[in-house]
From TrEMBL:
Domain Dipicolinate synthase subunit A N-terminal: 6-123
GO molecular function annotations of the record: oxidoreductase activity
SUPFAM superfamilies: NAD(P)-binding Rossmann-fold domains
Annotated ranges, domain Alanine dehydrogenase/pyridine nucleotide transhydrogenase NAD(H)-binding: 142-249
Keywords, ordered alphabetically: Oxidoreductase
Keyword Oxidoreductase found: yes
Name of the featured protein: Dipicolinate synthase subunit A
EC number: 1.3.1.-
NCBIfam families to which the protein is assigned, alphabetical: PRK08306.1 (NF006162), spore_dpaA (TIGR02853)
InterPro entries named in the record: AlaDH/PNT_NAD(H)-bd, Dipicolinic_acid_synth_A, DpaA_N, NAD(P)-bd_dom_sf
Gene3D superfamilies, sorted: NAD(P)-binding Rossmann-like Domain
Keyword Oxidoreductase: yes
Length: 299
């Protein structure tokens, strides 16, 4: 249980509602800001303004998937007010407080660093990334269905990268009856892809293997689907780029060549906010519990 633990949660989207539910269920004292436009009850959470006292009393500060932008602005879909996290706010946090977010921009990292406050980026963690790969793969399939006039069954799909997202996606596509080619750079990934029944190739061979594919899914977060690759794609091919912004595709050249290319960020929060919220909530509650247990032992 998290009895007596003071959690401050700022902004976010529907995913944070699952986080609030879970943390209040565990008996922590959850104070939230950035939910003025949400007219349904918040599972026992206390609504507040961004005041100094809010930060002074926090054992844990929870920010949304993308913590802040480069100026400290926090996305808050249930608020029409601007929520900005400042240097002063972080300076007011007790030294034992930890800041939790999905991923942090340099702005947030620098503030936490400067004030000696712990920062945990949940999406960096394997457990969260692997669970998140499930709604991501489902979202990628949704986009493929929306943007093609063929079934995935019987199509020739290519997945670039056999990491946490790529592996789940390749398996999902194969489950739907696609022929799946997987682009990797490591020999062990080649062997694993082969063992799993995919058609592996090394990404350095990419220009030679793209000439007959229907769908290209990229999970490699670097420029990989270059103009040269796009020039070799059949005109029917659709590119769905899942890698974090700006993606790994030359979108300008794809448009010039008339190839449909879509950057698809944040799919878990779009296609399955409840599941995505539970993934975050389960991990967060474990981490905060562990943190408060360690603090209890130290005192
Ligand atoms: P990951 O587990 O690190 O996988 C990335 C894969 O890319 C690894 O297999 C890695 O190979 C490969 N790779 C990296 N650089 C490469 C290069 N230069 N050449 C060849 N292969 C390279 O990451 P992930 O969790 O799957 O996430 C992948 C991307 O998707 C990230 O940008 C992430 O932010 C994004 N993402 C997007 C969504 C969405 O909704 N669109 C959801 C979740 C994640 P090695 O193992 O050899 O390094």
């Amino acid at each position: 249980m998290l009895t007596g633990v003071q959690v401050v949660l700022l902004g976010g989207d529907a995913r944070q509602l699952e986080v609030i539910r879970k943390l209040t269920e565990l008996d922590s004292i959850v104070t939230v800001a950035g939910f003025e436009q949400l007219h349904t009850p918040l599972d026992g959470a206390i609504r507040a303004e961004m005041s100094d006292d809010l930060f002074r009393g926090a054992d844990a500060l929870i920010l949304p998937a993308v913590g802040t932008d480069d100026e400290g602005k926090i996305i808050a879909v249930f608020s029409d007010r601007e929520l900005v996290l400042t240097d002063e706010h972080i300076g007011l946090l007790p030294k034992h407080c930890t800041v939790y977010t999905g991923m942090a921009k340099p702005y947030l990292r620098q503030l936490c660093d400067k004030h000696g406050i712990g920062l945990i980026e949940l999406f960096d963690r394997d457990d969260v990334a692997i669970y998140n790969s499930i709604p991501t793969a489902e979202g990628a399939v949704m986009m493929a269905i929306q943007h093609t006039d063929i079934t995935i069954h019987g199509s020739i799909c290519m997945v670039l990268g056999l990491g946490r997202t790529g592996l789940t996606l390749a398996r999902t596509l194969r489950g739907l009856g696609a022929k799946v080619k997987v682009g990797v750079r490591r020999e062990e990934h080649y062997a694993r892809a082969d063992e799993m029944g995919f058609e592996p190739f090394y990404v350095k061979q990419l220009p030679q293997v793209v000439s007959n594919i229907d769908l290209l899914f990229n999970t490699i977060p670097t420029m990989i689907v270059t103009a040269q690759i796009i020039a070799n794609l059949p005109s029917r091919a659709v590119i769905i780029d899942l890698a974090s912004k700006p993606g790994g595709t030359d979108f300008r050249f794809a448009e010039k060549r008339g190839i449909k290319a879509l950057l698809a960020p944040g799919l878990p929060g779009i296609v399955a906010p409840k599941t995505a919220g539970r993934i975050i909530a389960d991990c967060l509650s474990r981490l905060i519990m562990e943190d408060s247990r360690l603090r209890g032992n130290e005192q």
